[in-house]
Amino acid sequence: MAKEYSPEILALRGRVIVGNDKLNGAWEIIKTIEDKGRWQQELDRWTEANEKLSNLCRQLKLMGYVDCLYLDGNGKKTRKCLDGLGCRVCPSSTPYWEQELMLLPSPKV
User: Looking at the DSSP assignment, which residues form a beta bridge with residue 77?
Assistant: First the structure.
């Protein structure tokens, strides 16, 4: 069974999840920008937002949330760490990404 958290922690967790998704979506747009000046401006905004998200994630950890952001009510992951761009930040004390990495097929020699 999944650990229960206060509404305050769950609200912050929700903000971090939204931030991860927004930053990943923004990155997909940024990498298509051809104008160097605009690209740099958007990259700077993205970097600043990434720092803010990192601070929110630290706050979440300090409040006692040390699980994957994408656990359902039964404690099962609903999203893989290595799918797409993955998470920009992760409060989990369990290195799920390492477990997923080890399950990937080995390269053909």
Answer: 71
Collapsing DSSP to helix, strand or coil, 37 comes out as: helix
Residue 65 neighbours by CB under 8 Å, 6+ apart: 5, 9, 12, 13, 91
> pTM of this prediction?
0.84
In a domain, 108, yes or no: no
Contact 79, 96 (CB under 8 A): no
Q: Is there a domain that residue 2 lies in?
A: no
CB 9 within 8 A of CB 60: yes
Answer whether residue 42 is part of any domain: yes
- At 53-104, the pLDDT tens digits run 999 999 999 999 999 999 888 888 898 888 877 888 999 998 888 888 888 8
DSSP 8-state class, residue 2: P
In a domain, residue 1? The reply is no
